[in-house]
Structures are given as structure tokens and as C-alpha cells.
Amino acid sequence: MLFFSISTILAQSEGLTSSPYSLYGLGTINQSGIGKTNGMGYVGIGLKTPEEINNINTANFALVPQNLFIYDVGLKGLYNTFSNRADQETKTTLNFSNLAVAFRIGQGLGAGLSLVPYSDVGYSLVGIKTNIEGSNETFESSVTGVGGLSDLKLNLGYELLPGLRLGLGGSLLFGNIEETETFEISSSNFELTENTNYTGFRLNTGIQFDVSENITLGSTIQLPTSLKGTLKRSVLKNVDQTEITVENEGTDSTDDFKMPLQVGLGFSAKIFKSLTLAGDYKNNYWSDTQQTENLGSYVDQSVFALGMEYEKNSDSFKYVDRIQYRLGYNYDTGYLSMNGSKIDGYSFTAGIGLPVGQGWKSRLNLSYSYGSQGQIQNIMIKENFHLVTLNLGLKDVWFQKRKIN
Q: The whole model's pTM is what?
């Protein structure tokens, strides 16, 4: 079993995560976003960001200014601590977090293209004991898993009426998960490798409505879909240092992985021209997918997020007046249930946005998050993490003639 001992967690260096919870489904779902949202509790459904990429609500792309081309590239570093009743271990990983662009197509119509990790897999289990069928003997094995899925997303936002924006987006989810099990029986070593590739397309919609100049409401919907899976399996046997291929199957189909319907609501409010407050609520209807896991079950998931940002004066010529300070909180009820307990999690976030470049149009966004998921209960493991994200948002003016006096 996965959670019987902390010593079973030996994360692979090539893995994108070290979380034991990445054993489930498609792995650990990526939570970090693009730009300022990482420091604001990952809010964004009702957040207006005309000159920064907001990948959470497609409707926001209608706000991209004329002739402005926006880039955003990000990195993230994660420090994990895993603990149970008997032991504790730590792991550090550094990964790519996003590559995104946004631009205006025409009057009231903007677009964005992004590539982000959707899920990460990186786990290792050692000392798993299994009974040999038909006897009282057992053998020990070790299991490792690496991989994950990527999300290539195209978003379109259109301003239907002044203050009313609609969005439509499509995501191509693709990637593979490789699991390798090694064991020894009667002086022979075996290695079983299963490589599962997933691919699928998912639609999402969004809307933003400006109640007033300072208050915006938003909503998002991600439609359910199924990811097609193909499986390739191979078994190698090693006898007296001689490797023999026992089984090497070609590509075969496997069960589809069903993605749930997600509905989200959000708001943002500008206070005293310097303070922005925002909040999101999202619900993922995992139970409708009727999927099961060997060690648990899928349950409906709710996510609550709150965030705030302070900027003294965005139009000031003073550098310090244009620095943005951010705080946030995020609570996730979890989508997996083990022994009747949901694997929930929370995180506190803080961030800063530093103007860079000529005219301070570009911005360097740095955020820090401390969070936890799971709990020390029965055979479960508690995971605490420190997450640092670094995003560079660059802005470039296109198709604008220079004026010479």
C-alpha cells in the first residue's frame, strides 16, 4: 500500500513532482497560474487584467489593448516535507511553470495561447510485499512512476457590449505516465514497464461583467470530456546477467480517463484606487465521472480562493509607487477520498510585482506559497510544501509608427 510507511517515498530526480498523491489518476493537478494570480491565492475568474495575462477566465482576453503583445514565462521551485506517525522526509524540485502569449486580433477581440503543465507524476514505493498465488510465500517489489500531462490552450475573448465580455477556449491535454515495477522470484529479476499515453480536447467558456467601474463579476465553465488512453507494456527477465524479453506488447487501448464538469464564480472590487480584492469559488463534479481507484474514490471537489493586491499609484513616475504587493488564501476540499477521509489542502500566498524595462510596462512577478495536504491519520501521509514561482511578463508594442518631431 502507498501510505504504510514514509520510507516508501523516494522521489525520482527526473520526476516533475515528489508527492505520493501523484500515484492517483493523472497525478498531482497543477495549481500555480500565470503572473499575479500566484500571489493572490490563485484567484482570477472576476479579475480584470488588461495588460497582464489572466488564463483563468477566457473573457479577460477581450481587454488586451490595441497593438500590445504580451508574453509570460515562468519557473517554479517546490520544497516538500512528507511525514507520518513514524518518519519524515523532504524533497526539492525545480520545474517549468508556463509559457504564454496574448494579443489583440481586432476591435473588442483578443486571443491568448499558453502551454502549462496540467499534472505531474513522480513517486517511488519500495518494499511492497505480495503473496505468490497458490502458496504461502511472498516477494518484495519496488514501483516507480514518472511523467504527467501538459495543457496547450487557445483562448478567445470578445467584448459583446461595453462592460460585458465573453470567452471561449479549447485545451489539448496530452502526455504520458510511465510506471515500472521490479521484483525478484527464485533468483530471477523481473522488470514490468507500463507506459500510458493520454490525449484529449476540452472546451471552456467564460464571462465577465462590470457592475460598475470598480466591481466585476465573472463565471467560468469547463465542460466534461474523456481522455483517450493507449497502453504499451513490456516485461524483461534477467537470469545470470542475461536479459530476456518475456513480453513486449504493441500499443493497446486502455480505459479512458474522464474529466469532470467544472463551474466557477468570482468577483473583484477596486477600493480607494489602490487596493483590489478578489474571490473565486469552483466546483469539480468528479463523482459524476463514476471512476474508482484501488486505494480510494473520486468525490466532488470545491475550491475557495481569496486574494488582494495593493499598488499605491499605477500612473506615478516613482518606481516604488508602481510596485504591487499581494496576499491570498486557497482551500481545496480535494477530489480523492480514502477510508472515508477526503485528501484536502490549503495554501497561503504572498507576492510582489516589480516593474522592469523601459517605461516599466513589463513586470517581474515573484510569489511564495506555504501549504499542506493530507493528514497524519491511520496509514495516510501529510504533505507540507513551500512553493516559489517566478514569472516574467513582457509587453511589446506592435504595428505602431514612430513619431519624430
A: 0.84
